[in-house]
Write a structure and sequence with these properties.
Elements: H1 15-36, H2 40-57, H3 59-70, H4 74-112, E1 118-130, E2 138-141, E3 154-156, E4 161-168, E5 173-177, E6 184-189, E7 195-200, E8 207-210, E9 223-226, E10 238-246, E11 255-260, E12 269-277, H5 289-344
Antiparallel strand pairs: 1-2, 1-12, 2-5, 3-4, 3-12, 4-5, 6-7, 6-9, 7-8, 8-11, 9-10, 10-11
Organism: Paraburkholderia phenazinium
Protein name: Cell shape-determining protein MreC
Family: Belongs to the MreC family.
Length: about 375
């Protein structure tokens, strides 16, 4: 009969082995999620599943805030009512001016046959809570993919830019605020039209306008708006104001400190913009001058290499002709010499050969015939 210990005393793997296993598992999950986004679906499912629990956890806070709102005095309500009336009057005047300018703009565009450059839709949202990371400037809003929120959409309020949507869940979305150290927005100075890029700071209390030359015309109090050149933010949205401009002789760029126009940490109700830029896409990049020069040199070398054999053949043809011409006079000279020798040498005739009748002598007189003597020689 086998003996087995009671369940209380059963021992599995050691504590060190468990620690090493779970540490390796955590590292593998972190690396795979950071490189390949393997846990994105799991994160979305967990976010959707935990949404009711989050809402339930926020019920006490909502009840407390509701009780605080009920405790507001009538004097405060009257003051807010007067302020809202004045603001409503200003906004009505601005709306009338904007309507008039819009009608004039549309008339001019029709007159010049210009197409509309952008279309912007907005979705209202409310901030629910901040993220857990104290080193980032991020908040969670109560709108997600089910409500049409898209990744990368700009977030604004009535004063200006607040941030940008950086992560979307089914029922929620994460917004990176304008003052986050990793957030960058292309801006333009209203007074001079100077374009640059504004960044957040590690402290999250100011903004840094970078890549501004020392010679640029920039002053404290200048307003910065979105330039719209990145295709993400609509042009003309208020972003920040210049507070201080430090120009140092040992650097090529000035240090410009700005403050956001909108209350980044004080806003509660927001608008998520769905911006569609109808500008045509950029053309294909042209080759660099250095690569073009290299290609031209390579083509030139190939052409010269092709022409070299032809030049050598052409140079060899005159040389052979000259050689043949030089050889021809020697053969002609030899022929002339042979003819001269032939003329100079006397012709020998065989003994006993008689000259033909009628043949003249060398002096031109005819030959004299001798009478026959009967075979006796004189």
């Amino acid at each position: 009969m086998e003996y087995s210990p009671p369940p209380l005393f059963k021992q599995g793997p050691s504590a060190l082995a468990r620690l090493i296993f779970f540490v390796l598992l955590a590292l593998a999950l972190l690396i795979s999620d950071a490189r390949f986004r393997t846990l994105e679906i799991v994160r979305g499912v967990l976010g959707a599943g935990l949404y009711p629990l989050q809402r339930a956890a926020l019920v006490p806070r909502d009840m407390f805030m509701g009780a605080a709102d009920l405790a507001v005095t009538s004097a405060t309500l009257r003051g807010q009512n007067d302020t809202l009336r004045k603001k409503n009057l200003q906004l009505s005047l601005q709306a009338n001016t904007a309507a008039e300018l819009g009608a004039e703009n549309e008339h001019l565009r029709l007159l010049l046959q210009l197409s509309q450059r952008m279309t912007t839709q907005s979705i209202p949202a409310e901030i629910q809570y901040d993220t857990r990371d104290p080193f980032t400037q991020k908040v969670i809003i109560g709108r997600g993919a089910q409500q049409g929120i898209q990744d990368g959409s700009p977030v604004v309020n009535e004063d200006g830019v607040i941030g940008q949507v950086t992560r979307v869940f089914p029922m929620q979305a994460e917004v990176t605020l304008l003052t986050d150290k990793d957030q960058a927005v292309p801006v333009q100075v209203v007074r001079t039209g100077l374009r640059s890029v504004i960044y957040g700071t590690p402290k999250g209390d100011s903004l840094d306008l970078r890549f501004v030359p020392i010679s640029a015309d920039l002053q404290a109090g200048d307003e910065l708006v979105t330039s719209g050149l990145d295709g993400t933010y609509p042009p003309g949205l208020p972003v920040a104001k210049v507070v201080r401009v430090d120009k140092q002789a040992d650097t090529a760029f000035a240090r410009v400190v700005c403050l956001p126009v909108a209350p980044v940490r004080g806003a509660r109700e927001l608008l998520v913009l769905h911006y569609q830029n109808t500008v045509p896409p950029r053309p294909a990049d042209e080759p660099d001058a250095a690569s073009s020069a290299k290609e031209a040199k390579a083509k030139k070398g190939a052409k010269s290499a092709e022409k070299a054999p032809e030049k050598n053949a052409k140079a060899a043809a005159p040389a052979s002709a000259a050689t043949a011409a030089a050889a021809r006079p020697s053969s002609a000279t030899a022929t002339a010499a042979a003819a001269t020798e032939k003329k100079a040498a006397p012709e020998k005739k065989p003994v006993g050969e008689k000259k033909p009748a009628g043949e003249k002598k060398a002096d031109g007189r005819p030959p004299v015939e001798k009478p026959a003597t009967g075979g006796i020689d004189e």
